[in-house]
Amino acid sequence: MGQERRGWEGAVLRLMGARDFTFTVTDTEDLGPSFRRLRLTDGGMLAATGVHPTMWVRLWFPGTGRPHQRAYTLVDPDPAAGTLTLEFALHPGRASDWARAARPSDTIGATVQGTGFQRPDPAPSHVFAMADPASLPALNSLLDAVGGAPATIWFEGDPGAGPPPRTDPARHEVRAAPRHEAGAGLVARVREELPAPLGAAAHPYVWIACDTATTRALGGYVRRELGVPRRQVHALGYWRPS
């Protein structure tokens, strides 16, 4: 998809210093009925930008009318080889439709702008994470980045329905939380379970990456009611219910 078809979104990103690349699909793998993994060449992106934990790109999906862009976290980026993997949680929509149909040699435009990662300071004594299938690649990258810190993870959805979280049972506890009431169930469960372990952690770090409304509710609870300093909370909505 050429830049001329990206409309005002593409124009604003270019003014903000965004960089555009073209990815090419080299291999595909279905991970159950609701996940698909694509391996791609990066069009020179990683050599130009470098790599950091939870790094993401905007992909531009073809369609009529307004261009459709969504952000995806890089999985196993390899700057030397110029390759990366993307994992798609499949649901109705253009992005999932494109991923389902993707075949080797297919291409897609990618834009890098706004991504970044700040390591928690002070280093976390315990990580408390709330995630779902859409943010699973970013969760895995975060767990790699914080090294030996133990983690408690509330995972909304079925962890067995796609690629598993990259967790170490000796350090990481995963609490599966089926999604219901548009995320309200997860919010209620975290409110019930989070205070006690937070009180025992000298330097807690809370990472929240669910749908926008759930993330906002959880982030507000952690900051305002539990009093966790803003610098020790990362809250970013990864999707909006259609």
What do these coordinates show?
The protein has 242 residues and is α/β, with parallel strands linked by helices. It folds into two domains: 3-112, Translation factors (Elongation Factor Tu (Ef-tu), domain 3, Beta Barrel); 126-235, Rossmann fold, CATH 3.40.50. It contains seven helices and twelve strands. The protein has helices at 7-15, 45-49, 94-101, 136-145, 184-193, 195-200, 212-225, and strands at 19-30, 35-41, 56-61, 68-73, 75-78, 83-89, 107-112, 126-131, 151-156, 172-177, 204-209, 233-235. The radius of gyration is 18 Å and the shape is globular. The mean pLDDT is 86.
Number of E-state strands: 12
Shape: globular
- What oligomeric state do these chains adopt? single chain
The fold-level CATH name of the largest domain is Elongation Factor Tu (Ef-tu), domain 3
Q: Helices and strands, in N-to-C order?
A: HEEHEEEEHEEHEEHHEHE
How far apart are the first and last residues' alpha carbons, in Å?
Answer: 24 Å
- Low-confidence runs (pLDDT<50, min 5 residues)? none
Tally of separate domains: 2
Note the main sheet: 7 strands, antiparallel
Which class of secondary structure composition applies to the elements? alpha/beta
If strands are numbered along the chain, what order do they take across the biggest sheet? 4-3-7-1-2-6-5
Task: Give the CATH superfamily of the largest domain.
Answer: Translation factors
